[in-house]
Design goal:
Structural class: alpha+beta
Number of helices: 9
Helix content: 40-55%
Radius of gyration: 23 Å
Distance between the termini: 76 Å
Length: 232
């Protein structure tokens, strides 16, 4: 007799084991990452259930949701059983999760340390594959009054225009600013250009009585603070 190799369709699983029913019965926190993704894609392919396909996708990215969050629709569409619509569903769900982290709440945030600034700024840099330059604007008591995107670039760099930076800060009545940009490479070490632009910004800020308190270089996991390193 031929060995049985056909995958059991999710509809034939015990009700308590089906992802949708499991969520309804036990709540969302009882589902694995693969089961949550399976709900998004709804079906697998001829060889795999939606859950098995979801597990394979996760394994490809080392079961790292942050890594999966940086994947494009085109990359996901390469998996057998994942068409453009399913890939868009996955990317959209992960983007909603990222935006949820971005919400800082209603309470005013005071920045006392570089870690405080990092935690405020990290959500805007999460999952980016290109460089962006932002400023964090503070009042005289170091409470956050806003953050603003100055420029976008490629994987190798972006342009930080002092005129735009200080014009934006003055329009928002900021007393202090913190500069920040990301390194998609994952290496937070500053380049020579990073050091030069920071010194230029610090001097310009002194002339305007609008002080640059720090410059952060941010990756998905780490950050480098010019202030902590004594470079400001």
């Amino acid at each position: 007799m031929m060995p049985y190799q056909q995958k059991l369709n999710i509809k034939l699983w015990a009700e308590a084991d089906r992802p949708r029913e499991k969520l309804m019965l036990n709540g969302r926190r009882h589902l694995t990452d693969a089961e949550l993704i399976a709900i998004l894609i709804a079906s697998g392919n001829k060889e795999e259930t939606a859950v098995d396909l979801s597990k394979r996708i996760l394994v490809t990215y080392n079961n790292d949701l942050d890594a999966l969050g940086r994947v494009s629709v085109q990359d996901l569409s390469k998996f057998k059983g994942i068409g453009e619509a399913k890939a868009i569903a996955i990317v959209s769900a992960l983007e909603l999760g990222r935006r949820r982290r971005e919400v800082t709440g209603k309470d005013t945030i005071k920045v006392v340390t570089s870690r405080d600034a990092f935690e405020v700024l990290l959500p805007v840099f999460a999952d980016l594959n290109h460089e962006e330059f932002w400023i964090l604007m503070l009042n005289r008591a170091n409470f956050v009054i806003g953050r603003y995107l100055i420029s976008k670039g490629g994987q190798a760099g972006t342009i930080a225009d002092p005129k735009i930076i200080f014009k934006t800060a003055l329009e928002h009545n900021a007393a202090h600013i913190i500069l920040a940009h990301n390194h998609p490479s994952g290496n937070p070490k500053p380049s020579d250009q990073d050091i030069r632009i920071t010194k230029k910004m610090v001097e310009a800020g002194k002339m305007l009585d609008l002080y640059v308190l720090d410059h952060l270089i941010i990756t998905n996991k780490l950050f480098y603070s010019f202030g902590d390193e004594g470079l400001i």
